[in-house]
Amino acid sequence: MTEQPTSFDRPHTGPEPADARGALLRTSEPVQAPGAPALPLQSRQGDTPPCPATPRPPADSGGGPLVAGSEHSQSGSAEPGAHRPRPVPEGIPAQPDAATRAAVPQGAGPDPESGDADTPADVVAEAARAATDAPSTAGTPAEQARHAGREAREQAGPQTPVQPLAQGQAQAQAQPDRRKDRSGQKAGAGEQRRGAAQAPPPGGQERRTGQGVPFGRPMPMRRDGDRLRFVGAATRRIARGMDLDEIVMGLCRATVPTFSDAILVYLREPLPVGDERPVGPLVLRLRRTDRIPDERDTEGVYVPPPVPEQPAELSVVTNELCEVRPGSALGEVLRGVRPVFTDTEPARAALDELLGEDSELAVPDGRRTILAPLRGRRRVIGAALFLRRPERLAFEPDDLLVAAQLATHSALGIDKAVLYGREAYIADELQRTMLPETLPRPTGVRLASRYLPAAETARVGGDWYDAIPLPGSRVALVVGDVMGHSMTSAAIMGQLRTTAQTLAGLDLPPQEVLHHLDEQAQRLGTDRMATCLYAVYDPVSHRITIANAGHPPPVLLHLGGEAEVLRVPPGAPIGVGGVDFEAVELDAPAGATLLLYTDGLVESRLRDVWTGIEQLREKLAATAQLTGPDHPPPLEALCDDVLDMLGPGDRDDDIALLAARFDGIAPSDVAYWFLDPEDSAPGRARRLARRALDRWGLEELTDSVELLVSEVVTNAVRYATRPVTLRLLRTDVLRCEVGDDVGQLPRLRQARATDEGGRGLYLVNKLARRWGATRLSTGKVVWFELNRG
Fold first, then answer.
1. Residue 787: strand, helix, or coil
2. Where is the signal peptide (predicted)?
3. What pairs with residue 178 in β-bridges?
């Protein structure tokens, strides 16, 4: 069929369709203009033509009632050359003729306060229907419905009257306003569709069930897409948790109030870790509860709720412990793994067992409670209880799948959190074991330390520090850094620290200690690299000997407030092999503070090592100015101030910090002699000790000191080939040291009744506060201490 061409300039006496794509007119019958022949009703081929006497009831398509017949369909009786009206472009409403405009009542128009305003096309169609149906309002049911709609519009209130436009004006305004009207109509239709989809059900009732939805209650999920989106968002929130409390809180916050009004989470006590087989009965402990609060914020004004005489539903705390007996109803539900409604008798019995017989929790009837077991990788680790209030819609069967997904993700997350907690505990214990639990209190020096891991997720590292007492009231200060931040680095650090302690006990020079550490690192592996700084402080001579193996140099804070970076040969790192280490001896004045640290304190991605060392020196000098030139800053506060220099981006490595305050021992508190290895040496030693005690005012210790000095010197003279040394130190205790050139250490043993010797060390052990023997590179030293009056 060939369509007759038309032109925009050709005048039309009758109304044109409002939709350019062939939409149905809103009138039940075509509107006929005066003097124009009426178009016959048209239908598609094969359809039954509608009867003119019985118009078809309008169908709701979201845009108003539709009339039968399409402008693209042809009837069998239509003339071949009959003219068919050309559709008007979208957005230009059909203009009524004079008779139709006269039939429009005054004041008819859209309600400015209503959200459903009629378009001009709706007004024209309504006027046409009014003109057509004016003779009789009591006709077919469709006509009665149209008449009722008109009466409802008239009762809605005053409306804006439609301003009639001349046909020429309408055609003149059609072209420039076409695009704007089309966009406006599309936007308006989209807003109406979105408003209809998002608006609450009419009358505050749920559409499918007709039950009321209280203000502030979430609408139930009615589509599978809503459930999938909720499960996705809830599982993402649960997966964000790292520890146990975060995961349980994520489950509670994700489900309340979207899925349920309250939730109770029970976990096994204690929680099994990994493949551990639990011992003892299954006991569930209430870990967390969450619910919708009773009070509401209405329009920004807080209205306090009335205080109820009885506890509100879902707000009563139940018993916290529940022992699951084998073969009980709760045990069977937990074994089944799947979530269940509590509307059946076995599930209700399991719920009563979980909450306790004396529980005051008001559980709603019907399918408003879901009991979901929490099963991890190996076994059930708990249960979750989802509850809804009576005024809310009950759970649906598909909600069991939602509860199963939430329970599965939560249980697996809890399993991972428990494993992570065990690993973190092992890492903490390993790091705590590798580092000294407490620092010693050697004579003439005070110590303080700090250790910070690189991050919370990397609790172990290769940094370590140590303070080792040495013979002669000396102390060895050690700080080192093994490459890496793993368990392997921590294990290597532990072996190197143990080796350093053993070498320090041999009283080797600092450079020899580093040489042996280098050999030990090569034995551990070819890629075992570490830096270390080893220093020995002598409080009697006020000197310190330092050897360095690729470590940052120490900083010395003097009593006057000056901070100095000590010039120490850097050396090569431990593990390189084939290198020599050099030691330097420096002054250590009384009142000065030596700071040993690892590179994590001074180096980061934001600054290089030497910039960080300079900042550290300035920080120490600024801290010393706060206490004045005559008073050094407290050690603990000084360590805290040093760590405060770290910024937000400066924690790229773990940090070990060791601070030593040099008090020293005054020369007047030291007495030192050489004794020839002869029989008269013990008597001379007693006389020298008596004179020193008289000079110090410690006469009450004379008898004990003479007896013990005589026994120790006698043993030394018996085997020595070179002169024996005797030294007395007066500090908070009285310390006596006897040295010889024999490397064999004495051992305490029980002398028999017939033995002539072997009782000297027994007397020392009984009378002295402490005693010991230390092997030196040139022999040994036997020492003992006595409390001062």
1. strand
2. none
3. none
Return the closest-CA partner of residue 368 out of 404, 342, 338: 342
- Give the residue, 70 or 122, on which the prediction is more confident: 122
Residue 593's nearest CA partner among 641, 548, 560, 615 is 560
| Mean pLDDT, residues 1-13 | 43
How far apart CA 500 and CA 492 sit, in angstroms, is 12
**What is the pLDDT at residue 439?**
93
Residue 264's DSSP bridge partners are 289, 385
Q: Which of 85-89, 453-457, 472-476, 773-777 has the lowest mean pLDDT?
A: 85-89
What's this model's pTM, rounded to 2 decimal places?
A: 0.59
| Distance (Å) of CA 439 to CA 466, 491, 636, 772, 774 | 8, 21, 13, 19, 20
CA distance 557 to 36: 111
- CA distances to 14, 17, 135 from 97, rounded to whole Å, are 7, 14, 19
d(CA 597, CA 621): 17
Flag whether pLDDT at 169 surpasses 90: no
- Print the SS3 string covering 266-313: EEECCCCCCCCCCCCCEEEEEEEEEECCCCEEECCEEECCCCCCCCCC
| Coil, helix or strand at residue 239 | helix
H/E stretch holding 227: helix 224-239
CA distance 733 to 782: 16
Cβ burial of 54 (10 Å; 0-12, 13-18, 19+) is: exposed
Question: What rounded mean pLDDT belongs to the chain?
Answer: 75
Q: What is the DSSP letter of 740?
A: E
